[in-house]
Amino acid sequence: MTSNVKTKIIMVNVSFTLVLIGIFISSLNPSHTAIAQQQPQQQQAHTFNGTMFQIDNVTFSHHLAIVNGIQMHYVIGGQGNPVVFLHGFPETWYEWRYVMPAFAKNYTVIVPDLRGLGDSSKPPTGYDGNTTAEDLNQLISQLGFKKILLVAHDIGAQTAFSYSEIHPNNVSKLVIMDYIFPGFLPPQFGQNGPWWFTFHQVPNLPEFLVEDKEREYISSFVKMLGYNPSAITEEDLDIYAEKYSAPGAMRDGFEYYRAFPLDAVQDKALVNQSKLQVPVLVLEADFYPVFGGPVQGTPVADAVKAMAQKVTGIKVPLSGHWIPEEQPQFVIKQLAKFIGE
């Protein structure tokens, strides 16, 4: 992406941050809060919806939607059948910047900011898979689509899996990138997962320790999980850090980890009811610096096979955890092959 394009994106994102700061969602009665705020939020959406920008000469636009008691920001572009991309932590919709233009040529590309992150509003609760799946369900319904292709990385994969299990007729194919599901952790990762799972789940402490150091934390997190961390540039880190420095954003990122125990219960219940029938492609890292180097086998795909009937696992060469940013061309080719077009 050119520096001019990134500058335009930064300018648009700054404007969205200024608009959304101060939006208050109460956990005491979310439904009443949504009703009380519906009119001003709709006015904001009317004012700022449709703000356009370009990536590689492909036009996308920013939008806001009221879904499931929150205000969700999403980016949309292209035309045709819908493909939805869900980001991970500590990222936003911007994670998919290298992949979006290729698919916007033939598809309607929809890229939300997950609840609490990016330019979506920041409620204190609702970060489990079933709740965030309902966020997605209401967004897709509002956009008028009935069946989607669903691609997700990291914590976005939990939302994607829950949505696919709860609404199997609404998903034609599912792609999961480098995420281990609570309740189905590969043995290599231990009973509770990597150390940062535990750290992020501690109440209040992580956000206290990283306050005013969000960029430093995000930078170190990227480096310890990336084979080629330079794929996420200093300018990219500035963009992520700006979003996660917003009031409540880092807390909400950690809330996705704090929801893991509930996610484990929900995942097992969904799988016990019926293993996922939707075809699944799993792309996983080839190399993890934090674990000492090359990844042996395909632990993520092996774990997902306990959750879904039709699973294809592929290790992404020369990539760490940040697959869409470290190896976007490989991702584009594998997605096109899996989709069948």
Helix/strand layout:
Layout: H1 3-20, H2 30-48, E1 51-55, E2 58-67, E3 70-78, E4 82-86, H3 100-104, E5 108-112, H4 129-142, E6 148-153, H5 156-166, E7 171-177, H6 195-201, H7 205-210, H8 214-225, H9 234-244, H10 249-258, H11 260-273, E8 280-284, E9 287-288, E10 293-294, H12 299-304, E11 311-315, H13 323-326, H14 328-339
Parallel strand pairs: 4-5, 4-6, 6-7, 7-8, 8-11
Antiparallel strand pairs: 1-2, 2-3, 3-5, 9-10
Report a brief summary of the structure:
By secondary structure, the chain is α/β, with parallel strands linked by helices. The protein contains 14 helices and eleven strands.
Order of strands, widest sheet: 1-2-3-5-4-6-7-8-11
- Tell me the distance between the termini: 25 Å
Q: Which stretches are poorly predicted, pLDDT < 50 over at least 5 residues?
A: 1-47
In round numbers, the mean pLDDT is: 88
Rg to the nearest angstrom?
Answer: 19 Å
Structure characterization notes:
The structure is a single chain. The relative contact order is 0.12. Strand 9 and strand 10 form a beta hairpin. The protein starts with a helix and ends with a helix. The model is unreliable at 1-47 (pLDDT under 50). The strands form two sheets. It has a nine-stranded mixed beta sheet, with helices on both faces. Strands 9-10 form a two-stranded antiparallel sheet. The chain is α/β, with parallel strands linked by helices and 341 residues long. The chain has 14 helices and eleven strands. The chain is globular and about 45 Å long.
